[in-house]
Backbone:
C-alpha cells in the first residue's frame, strides 16, 4: 500500500469521528436547553396547591401619630348613683293657655329640659336654667313665678330655684316652692327628703296639709307626717291637686282606650276610699309616660309627643 493512500484513509476516519462528536454535543445542548425552558415555565406557572389568595389592599389615608395602638374608650362608666328615671315627666298649669313642662334628665348626666307655652300647648319654648343645670326633680308654676328643684352632682343634691320673669333669670327659691319631687334617695318635700312609701314612686304631690304619691296600681296618701294610707287604683299614672280632691289619670280602663280621668278625695282617705270617673282622654297614649295638671277648670295632659287640654275639668278633650 502506498503511503499516499493511507493518509487519505486516516483523514477520512478523523473527519467522521469529528462529525459524530459535533452531533453529540449539539444534541446535548438541545436537551439542556429544553430542560432549562421547562424549568422556567414550571417556576412561572400558578401553584396548584390551593386557591390563589386575594391581592392585599392598602389604605392611602394618612395615619395619625400613635393610631397603631388601640386605646380603651373613655366614655364607658358606671351608672351614676343619682339616677332619675329618664322618662319622668313634670307638668304644671297656670290657666287654659299657659303651662310649664319638664323632662327630668339624669343627675350628673343629661340635664333636664324645661319648656313654656302661652298658646294652649301649640308651641313650646325651651327655657334655660342657667349655670349649674342638672336633673329637674320638681316643677310648680303660678301666675307670678315658676319654681323647680334641680338635682346636681353625683349625689343629686336638690336645690330650689325660682324665676319671676318667665325663666329669663333664676334665683334661690324657698323650700317647697316647687312642690314635691322624686329623687334617688326618696321623696323631696318642703321639710327635706323622706322615705317613699313604695319602691318605685312615679310622682309626688305635697299640699299644705297632705301628701300623695303615685305608685304602681295605687295612690299612697298621708296627712301631715302621719302614717301612709294606700288606696288601690289599677293603672294610675299621674295626679293633680284639685282642692279637696285629686284629679287622677290612669290607663287600662275597660271603657277608655286612652287615659281615664278620675276624681279621688284628698281628705279623710282610707284604703276603701273610692274614685269616680270624670272623663276619657281617648287620644292619650296608654303605653307612654303621662303627666296631668289642673288650674281651675283647665286640665292639661301630656301624653307621648302631644299635650291635650280640657276646659271643663277633664270631662271632654
Residues:
Amino acid at each position: 500500500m502506498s503511503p499516499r493512500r493511507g493518509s487519505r484513509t486516516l483523514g477520512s476516519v478523523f473527519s467522521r469521528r469529528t462529525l459524530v462528536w459535533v452531533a453529540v454535543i449539539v444534541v446535548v445542548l438541545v436537551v439542556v436547553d429544553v430542560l432549562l425552558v421547562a424549568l422556567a415555565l414550571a417556576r412561572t406557572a400558578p401553584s396548584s396547591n390551593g386557591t390563589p389568595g386575594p391581592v392585599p389592599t392598602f389604605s392611602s389615608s394618612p395615619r395619625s401619630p400613635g393610631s397603631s395602638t388601640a386605646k380603651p374608650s373613655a366614655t364607658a362608666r358606671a351608672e351614676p348613683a343619682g339616677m332619675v328615671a329618664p322618662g319622668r315627666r313634670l307638668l304644671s298649669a297656670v290657666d287654659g293657655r299657659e303651662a310649664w313642662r319638664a323632662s327630668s334628665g339624669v343627675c350628673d348626666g343629661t340635664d333636664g329640659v324645661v319648656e313654656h307655652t302661652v298658646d294652649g300647648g301649640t308651641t313650646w319654648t325651651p327655657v334655660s336654667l342657667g349655670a349649674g343645670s342638672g336633673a329637674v326633680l320638681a316643677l310648680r308654676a303660678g301666675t307670678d313665678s315658676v319654681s323647680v328643684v334641680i338635682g346636681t352632682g353625683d349625689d343629686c343634691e336638690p336645690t330650689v330655684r325660682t324665676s319671676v320673669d318667665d325663666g329669663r333669670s333664676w334665683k334661690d327659691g324657698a323650700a317647697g316652692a316647687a312642690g314635691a319631687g322624686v329623687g334617688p334617695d326618696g321623696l323631696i318635700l318642703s321639710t327635706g327628703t323622706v322615705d317613699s312609701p313604695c319602691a318605685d314612686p312615679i310622682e309626688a304631690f305635697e299640699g299644705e296639709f297632705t301628701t300623695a304619691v303615685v305608685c304602681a296600681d295605687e295612690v299612697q296618701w298621708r296627712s301631715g307626717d302621719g302614717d301612709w294610707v294606700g288606696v288601690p287604683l289599677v293603672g294610675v299614672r299621674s295626679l293633680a291637686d284639685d282642692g279637696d280632691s285629686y284629679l287622677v289619670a290612669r290607663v287600662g280602663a275597660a271603657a277608655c282606650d286612652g287615659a281615664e280621668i278620675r276624681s279621688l278625695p284628698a281628705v279623710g282617705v282610707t284604703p276603701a276610699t273610692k274614685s269616680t270617673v270624670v272623663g276619657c282622654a281617648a287620644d292619650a297614649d296608654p303605653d307612654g309616660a303621662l303627666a296631668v295638671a289642673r288650674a281651675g277648670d283647665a286640665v292639661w295632659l301630656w301624653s307621648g309627643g302631644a299635650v291635650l287640654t280640657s276646659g271643663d275639668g277633664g270631662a271632654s278633650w
